Amino acid sequence: MTQRTLLQLSLNTLLIAALTLPNLHAQELTAKATEAGNWGLGRRVFHSEAAGCFKCHAMDNVGAKVGPDLTRLSQSNQRDYESVLRDITHPSVSIDADYVSQKVLLKSGKEFVGVVRREDDVLVLSDAKGNSTQVMRANVERMEPAEGSIMPNGLVEKLSKEQLRDLMAFLLTPAPHMPLESRLEAPPVRTRAELAAVLAGSEPLPESLRTLNVVLVAGKKDHGPGEHDYPAWQIQWGQLLAAAPNVNVTTAWEFPSEEQMTASDVLIFFQKGTWNDDRAKQLDAYLARGGGAVYIHWAVNGDERVADFSTRIGLASKGGSIKYRHGPLTLDIHNTDHPIMRNIDRLQLYDESYWLLTGDVKNVTLLGTSTEDNEATPQLWAYEKGPGRVFVSIPGHYSWTFDDPIFRTVLLRGIAWTAKEPIDRFNDLVPLGARLAN
User: Fold this and answer.
1) Distance between CA atoms of 264 and 242, rounded to whole angstroms?
2) β-strand 111-119 against 122-126: which pairing, if any?
3) Which residues pair with 436 in a beta bridge?
4) Which is deepest, 73, 155, 188, 263, by most CB within 10 Å?
5) Which one, of 438, 420, 412, 404, lies nearest residue 178 by Cα?
6) Helix, strand, or coil here: 224?
7) Crossing angle for the helix pair 81-89 and 11-20, nearest 10 degrees?
């Protein structure tokens, strides 16, 4: 049986395979069963009304505390695909001792069934819908263990095979993050307090968000470990962005297809940039209809067509004609009133800067500069071409930069800004898989 065949098996067949292939270890089966799933889409299933998992369980500090916190599932190898699926399919087979449901009869005659938490003289009773009721212990006539789990049966039947596959990937695998193999030691992690300060003042999102079609454009990796890892970024950020409600993510290699150019709301380029007449024609039409585009690091390369390219993205680079430097990078923030840079006065990274770019800096909204050769050089900017919007980040050389929660905030705000969406639309994605310390 080939790996491809195994991946195409239904979830029920996978369980049978676990019993009939003794040479296939549980963790191997878990990997095969979850690698085809989409973590981001699985997170959306977890937080959906259809599955309703979030009403009783928390993952990564998001959700309720009625049932066990499920974060540990993806942080250890103690649970495998088969046993977790069994718990979802048959929730009463194995119940955590700390979450045994109780039947509570009040002296008034009312009866409650749920998980009970004691707080001094008060009992907090949480039911299967995540609703909590407080009662005084003195008002309790009788309390006894209830039969079975309050987790409802039939959850699997409510989900498609794809939804269940994605949910299992979300439960059993870590949040998307970039591979950190590198010849260098990774920079220090941020604290949650630092992130909270940057996210302060976020506006509540409207109840209804329009659907965004996002295309991630990557290319062949062209540097060493932990650098210019375009393929890994496309995979990890594809799943990260898929976790956002009402976002459809597709991928492209080198340049979007005509169909993607027609349907897309935001194009995100992270690869070695190449520019020609055909791409110019397509991008012009795209920006003319109000599309958004994001260019990261070496995607700003235009080679011999650099001047023409710069008129589309504000400033551009020509390989062999710019200067660059790797190492500690201090970005002084300009236009701090711009929504992309809210609450950020200075950004410290360990990355690569470019300077001697082609184009007129007066044509862009300068957001961040680094001092190179004793001059302030553009490293972050926004640009508007007709109704179209462009956001550019020169930082992005090292993989760890994409997991820096402050840089993530800037990049995700840049994506939202180019789409003319609420600037805080992607705030929930910032800490997922990021390099954060408590």
Assistant:
1) 15
2) antiparallel
3) 190
4) 73
5) 404
6) coil
7) 130
Judge whether 350 and 409 are in contact, CB under 8 Å.
no
Q: Cα separation of 391 and 267, whole Å? A: 10
Sign of the alpha-carbon dihedral angle for 300, 260, 243, 180: negative
Measured CA to CA, the distance from residue 189 to residue 434 in angstroms comes to 9
pLDDT tens digits, one per residue of 399-438 = 999 999 999 999 999 999 999 999 999 999 999 999 999 7
The Cβ-side half-sphere exposure at 133, using a 13 Å CA radius, reads 14
Distance CA 433, CA 180 (A): 12
pLDDT 10s digits, 185-207: 889 999 999 999 999 999 999 99
Q: What's the CA gap between 317 and 358, in Å, rounded?
A: 6
Six-digit token string for 173: 């695998």
Cα first-last separation, the chain: 45
User: Is residue 94 helix, strand or coil?
Assistant: coil
Convert the pLDDT of each residue in 24-64 to its tens digit.
Answer: 455 555 566 567 799 999 999 999 988 888 887 888 878 77
